[in-house]
Task: structure prediction
Amino acid sequence: MNRSTFLTVIATSAITAIVVSSLFIASGLKPAAGPSLQLPGRSNVSAQQPDAAPVPTPIAKSTEEEIAEVVKRASPAVVSVIISKDLPVLEQTFVNPFEGFGDLFPEIQIPEVRQRGTQKQQIGAGSGFIVSKDGLVITNKHVVADTVAEYTVLLNDQRRLPAKVLARDPVQDVAILKIEGSNFPTLILGDSDKLEIGRTVIAIGNALGEFQNTVSVGVVSGLRRAITASGGGVSEQLENLIQTDAAINQGNSGGPLLNLDGEVVGVNTATVIGAQSIGFAIPAQLVKKDLADVKTLGKISVPFLGVRHTLVTKEVADRLKLGVDFGALITTGDNNEPAITPGSPAEAAGLKGGDVILELDGARITPANSLARLIQQHRVGDEVEVKVRRGSAEFTVKAKLVERPQG
Result:
């Protein structure tokens, strides 16, 4: 499967689970006055209250009805992102290998493949959703990763509009596109920080790159997950993800994960192949920052400290005798990349390979509160306090975050 079409963690099989709550109807209400009880369908109001009218019983909407309403409202703003590219047109011909030697063996012909020009062809598809009336579209970075491909947005009303990639987040799997026009239907980015495990969520997307606006329903089954996502020969670390059992199929990448208020709480990004209903989404709070950057700066601005690190666990601490079982250990990369980026804020602050960063601005670094997550909560130009352990000594240094280098 092409990485532009879909990003997998390992592989997928997902089940849609629709939660239906009971319809509760009160069995009776007391009237405003008088000793008798007014029951639905009965008229036993006391004679002293001849003009008393029955009080309407409020009927709660079922979860099923809420889901149907959210889908109806949200679907017009959910789009398919079509990926096209100029590919060679090949044709098979037959040639005589002895051509040029007269009439020697004229009956011998062997097949040969030749290129006959190029033709624009669809090579993949993903999903996205519109967040502004003037045509800003959110999708996954891996959907629009090919810098020489062309992208087309297919709207719910079947209009096809060319799309320009305005920005790709160098850290998160988020990209922002622009289509020309006005008065597009939009979705609102909600507050993903308020999500709770067990809450109902709805995923909408271009399933398998063929079935536009396919809906699946599930619950939030985990928060602040970290995964290594791979596909198309590329892998990347993704952190602070929402886990859901709503089916996220191939082609759903970039589509919205909605709450029952119809707000986008996440951007569907990956799923586990071979597992039962384990999918992941980028939290809306991260997308809000990227969107604000594009609107104000024309690009996505990412703060950078300049350290290569690994999370300290009890096993790592015991094996390396670090003296602490939390934090971020500054270390070289798998291919011997430097632990400290030359010219970076980390180098200027005097950090070294083997140091353990314990806290950033007073926040302890843990699996649920990674160094990358804490850095992303800041802006380029912010000065941060970094608490460090070197050997048995602990000290604090200051570093001024800079723009993350390209590449």
Observations:
- The longest helix spans residues 284-297.
- The chain has five helices and 22 strands.
- Helices lie at 63-74, 284-297, 314-320, 345-348, 371-376.
